[in-house]
Design brief:
Blueprint (H helix, E strand, L loop, with lengths): L1 H16 L5 H33 L6 E6 L12 H8 L6 E2 L2 E2 L1 E13 L5 E9 L1 H5 L5 E5 L8 E5 H6 E2 L6 E4 L2 E10 L9 E4 H7 L8 E5 L5 H11 L5 E5 H9 L3 H32 L1 H9 L4 H31 L3 E5 L5 E5 L4 H27 L4 H7 L1
Parallel strand pairs: 5-11, 7-10
Antiparallel strand pairs: 1-12, 1-13, 2-3, 4-5, 4-8, 4-12, 6-10, 7-11, 9-10, 14-15
Helix pairs in contact: 1-11, 2-8, 2-9, 2-11, 2-12, 9-12, 10-13, 11-12
Subcellular location: Cell membrane
Membrane topology: Multi-pass membrane protein
GO cellular component, one term: plasma membrane
Length: about 400
């Protein structure tokens, strides 16, 4: 065993030293692997960032009420009477002002994306100070809170990054209504930063919503209270709503971009086939170029296994180099990149691409698969190079 290891080491060194003779073909294999890894990581980072932006918005101690059958807030509704009934549900925490409940509105307005200068849907949320207090990580980055009963609003930091016309102090026109931006807020980078917030009662008046809302949030003692609230909803015929924790709702919404990760795997796999063809050509050329050297080693006692291992290591080394280059390119150009896409409520969600260690592992694994397949057949040929080749070349 030690003899095979020492022989394999010698062959590996010989292969590495001979790389300059095949420099451009070797670099082509590295480049092909790098492109595959970079593209795969870009798609995975996009899906990961979107999912993280959605899921980080949810809290386990917030009960989220929507009308039964509604897939998103935009499709839900809740009358004032139903809000009052929800306030009486068991498990909802109270303070000196009453139950910690936030009925909210969700209205679609237009914004102009900085990147394309095209209009896109963004959400204008109507809520009260109760609703603001229920958002974990809420901080005012600039300006002040909107004054209840006025046409003032505050802007999420994500909106400010991705859309034109929402700077502090600016007046915004939505149809025939004019609003003034009086504050910029952050919620730690989650989906709420993709929203505009204003007083719920003002939005009810301006958009002819009467006294109705769309969703209701309520602070609860623990996620276990959801079961008791569900029983209450089923026993009250005037309520046509379902409840879940806010974290469960956003976890479901966050999976809406999973197709992007699948698409990334499909595209990368197709590209990997092309990279594999080039890599196989590179490795077959490498074996042919070193046929005399391999045969000479065989003639002086080296085993065929050492030739096989040496060729495999060469292929895997080039693939790993390609994966590292691709991962570095993906990190430089995509990690933290701001983007926006359509979310579950048909409005834009601003998020950042997120490259994590597990994604890098997936990218390197893809490259190793390319390296293994591109190396195993040429390595088999190297192991079968006849010893007589050494003598033929010497004549």
């Amino acid at each position: 065993m030690s003899n095979i290891m020492s022989q394999s080491t010698a062959v590996i060194v010989m292969n590495i030293r001979s790389l300059p003779r095949r420099l451009w073909m070797s670099l082509a294999m590295v480049f092909a692997s790098a492109v595959v890894v970079a593209i795969l990581l870009a798609f995975l980072a996009m899906a990961k960032g979107f999912e993280a932006t959605m899921q980080s918005a949810g809290s386990d101690d917030i009960a989220f009420f929507m009308r039964t059958g509604s897939a998103a807030e935009l499709n839900s509704s809740a009358s004032k009477e139903q809000v009052n009934l929800i306030e009486n549900a068991p498990g909802i925490i109270k303070d000196e002002q009453g139950q910690l409940v936030s009925p909210e509105l969700y209205v679609i307005v237009d914004g102009v994306k900085k990147s394309t200068q095209q209009e896109a849907n963004i959400p204008l949320r109507g809520l009260s100070q109760r609703g603001v207090d229920m958002r974990k990580g809420f901080t005012l980055m600039a300006g002040r809170m909107f004054t209840p009963g006025t046409d003032e609003l505050i802007v999420g930091a994500g909106i400010l990054r991705e859309f034109d016309g929402f700077d502090l102090g600016q007046e915004i026109h939505f149809g025939k209504y004019t609003w003034k931006v009086v504050g910029v807020f952050s919620t730690g980078g989650n989906v709420f930063e993709s929203e505009l917030w204003a007083d719920a009662k003002v939005i009810q008046n301006l958009y002819n919503r009467g006294s109705s809302y769309q969703t209701v949030r309520a602070r609860i003692g623990s996620p276990d209270d959801i079961a008791a609230i569900n029983d209450y909803l089923k026993s009250e015929p005037r309520l046509t709503h379902e409840v879940q924790t806010e974290s469960a709702y956003f976890a479901t919404q966050g999976k809406s971009l999973e197709y992007m990760a699948i698409f990334g795997w499909v595209i990368s796999s197709i590209m990997a086939l092309g990279a594999l063809a080039g890599a196989l050509n590179t490795m077959y050329t490498s074996v042919s170029d070193r046929a005399m050297e391999i045969a000479t080693l065989r003639a002086i006692g080296f085993s065929s296994m050492s030739a096989f291992i040496g060729t495999m290591v060469e292929a895997m080394t080039l693939a790993v180099l390609g994966s590292l280059v691709g991962a570095l390119v993906a990190f430089i150009f995509f990690d933290g990149l701001n983007a926006s896409t359509l979310g579950g409520s048909f409005t834009q969600v601003v998020f950042s691409f997120q490259l994590t260690s597990d994604l890098f592992v997936k990218g390197i694994t893809m490259a190793l698969v390319i390296g293994f397949i591109s190396g195993v057949f040429p390595a088999w040929r190297a192991a079968r190079v006849p010893v007589i080749v050494a003598f033929q070349s010497a004549r």
